[in-house]
Amino acid sequence: MRRVLVAGNWKMHKVPSEARVWFAELKRLLPPLQSEVALLPAYPMLPAAKEVFSGSQVAYGAQDVSAHREGAYTGEVSARMLADLGCRYAIVGHSERRRYHGETDALVAEKARRLLEEGLTPILCVGEPLAVREKGEAVPYTLAQLQGSLEGVEPPSPDALVIAYEPVWAIGTGKNATPEDAEAMHRAIRQALAERYGEGFAMRVRILYGGSVNPTNFAQLLSMPNVDGGLVGGASLELESFLALLRLA
Ligand code: PEP
């Protein structure tokens, strides 16, 4: 019912000339897949992604987008530009954006709305910091973030929205949530989506887990009924480990 999605978030790694070679290698080595694969490199690599991946089974997208449609916003990149480059996805609300750039739930929702206007699918990230989990408040904290980040966000279909649960303490740390903890959070997220968009809709929205996913822990995480794939940072940078993840999906 929900097609597994494995999305690689390259963050601020690699340069366009390296990326072009890497993309071509991925395309060459990729077996036919049942799951969906997406790469999310930095903006300057998107033209190469378009060149290499157009018409292939690899989708691609961006790691952020402007909350504005167009205008005098120096340094910003609009959803329309991403659409023109053939992007299918863009991450919004990654914890690194929230932490280092002060992004609020309201801003994240605004960005998600811009993407939907242009036919792109937001991969909307939520997740709690360590102190919140230690206090036993991970679920209410994450659901409040989800509600705020979905304010006014009306995806036209369940495929037009992806949620990524990324506990902040698990990102880039080598510590992943247990499959059971991830499942409990994903179930709570799906319940909240059902209250907002209706049961039938929520059952079809993909909820990815992110936070130190690697070829050793991915199969167990994926075996959970509400885990529909992974948003992968570090392990998406090496071709071998990314291919290993795709073979498990
Ligand atoms: C991420 O960048 O969203 C992420 C989960 O990173 P990592 O897999 O390296 O923890």
From TrEMBL:
An MF annotation (GO) of this entry: triose-phosphate isomerase activity
NCBIfam families: tim
Gene behind this protein: tpiA
UniProt enzyme class: isomerase
Organism: Thermus brockianus
Catalytic activity, as annotated: D-glyceraldehyde 3-phosphate = dihydroxyacetone phosphate
Sections of the chain in a coiled coil: none
EC number: 5.3.1.1
Family the UniProt entry places it in: Belongs to the triosephosphate isomerase family.
Protein name: Triosephosphate isomerase
InterPro entries with a match to the protein in the record: Aldolase_TIM, TIM_sf, TrioseP_Isoase_bac/euk, Triosephosphate_isomerase, Triosephosphate_isomerase_AS
UniProt pathway annotation: Carbohydrate degradation; glycolysis; D-glyceraldehyde 3-phosphate from glycerone phosphate: step 1/1; Carbohydrate biosynthesis; gluconeogenesis
